[in-house]
Amino acid sequence: MSTDPCWVFDNYNDAALLIDSLTASIAELESQLAEEKKDAERYRWLRRTLENSVGGGVEVNDQKLVYEQPEEGEAVRVYWYPDTPIGFYESKSDTLDEAVDAAMTSEGGK
Q1: Order of strands, edge to edge, in the sheet holding 55-60?
Q2: Do the Cβ atoms of 77 and 100 come closer than 8 Å?
Q3: DSSP letter (8 states) at residue 5
């Protein structure tokens, strides 16, 4: 490929390689953007839910002091009291992302 800054290619293969490379880069960036959007959606949901609740929070590995290892699927707990301090919703999982995703799709998360 020529080093000419005007992007003149010596042959078709050079142009095709560049197009393939750019296409792959775009696909990777789109995937990364989708992941970042999902993370932002989780944070906004968590912030909005906890701000609009009577109480709630996130606990990570709270059983570790007692059991050394939390029960499988219970390393992270997201909970909130939507209307009163009596009765709450909760979601437990192995990771914060999974717990928030489950809470977002639960009856109390909508």
Answers
A1: 55-60, 76-81, 89-93
A2: no
A3: T
Angstrom distance (rounded) from CA 45 to CA 89: 14
Give the integer Cα–Cα distance in Å for 55 and 81. 5
Using the predicted structure, report yes or no on whether residue 69 has a pLDDT greater than 80. no
Cβ contact 59:77 at 8 Å: yes
Q: Hey, what amino acid is at 12?
A: Y
* Sequence-ordered list of residues with C-beta below 8 angstroms from that of 88, at least 6 positions apart, any chain: 55, 56, 79, 80, 81, 82
pTM reported for the whole predicted model: 0.70
Q: Rg of the chain over CA atoms, in angstroms?
A: 23
Give residue for tokens 């080093």: 3
CA atoms within 13 A on the CB side of 64: 8
- Asked if 91 contacts 106 with a C-beta cutoff of 8 angstroms, the reply is yes
